[in-house]
Amino acid sequence: MSFLNSFDISASGMSAQRVRMDIAAENIANVETTRTESGGAYRRKDVVFESFGAQSFREALRNAQAGKGFRGQRAGVRVSGIVTDDREMKRVYNPNHPDADADGYVNYPNVDILKETVDSMSATRSYEANVTALNAMKAMAQSALDIGK
After folding, report:
1. Three-state DSSP string of 17-28
2. Average of pLDDT values for 128-149?
3. Is the full-model pTM beyond 0.85?
4. Which of 13, 29, 47, 137 has a CA positioned 20 to 30 A from the CA of residue 126?
5. How far apart are the C-alpha atoms of 38 and 145, rounded to whole Å?
6. Beta carbons of 78 and 58 less than 8 angstroms apart
7. How many domains does the chain have?
8. What are phi and psi of 103, to 5 degrees?
């Protein structure tokens, strides 16, 4: 694995976690939205990640034994999609609400504030871990350059 690829890996992780934080913020902002442009209440969104360019352990071992090493291929994580949560909506009896159905119930978004808070905290910690790894690699590169002085 090339030393510079580690910067790409951390950068892709930070980018993916930023999207995760944005989606959690969007979910929280729409916790009371009962009417959207597409009709109906807002549906919670979730981010799906996928790794790219990474070798399996078996491939890495085989390449290491053959002396091939890592062939400069970019690797990391990316957002493969943003999916909507199909769980049931929260039904609240409020016959005076403009979006109430014939029975007087209003469909509220299937957003759980606690879950969104935990997701955003987890994304923040993952982002911070990638920043720490990036800074450690930067310090190693600087130390390597200092050796040559």
Report:
1. HHHHHHHHHHHH
2. 89
3. no
4. 29
5. 56
6. no
7. 1
8. -90, -5
Whole-angstrom CA distances from 45 to 24, 28, 91, 92 are 8, 10, 19, 21
Asked whether residue 97 is domain-assigned, the answer is no
Is 65 within the bounds of a domain?
yes
Which residues form the domain of 9?
5-33+43-87+107-147
Nearest CA to 127 out of 4, 2, 15 is that of 15
Query: For residue 48, what are its two tokens?
Result: 């799906």
Euclidean distance between CA atoms 138 and 143, whole angstroms = 9
74-109: per-residue pLDDT in tens? 778 899 999 999 999 999 999 999 988 999 999 999
102 in any annotated domain: no
**Half-sphere exposure (Cβ direction) of 27: Cα atoms closer than 13 Å:** 26
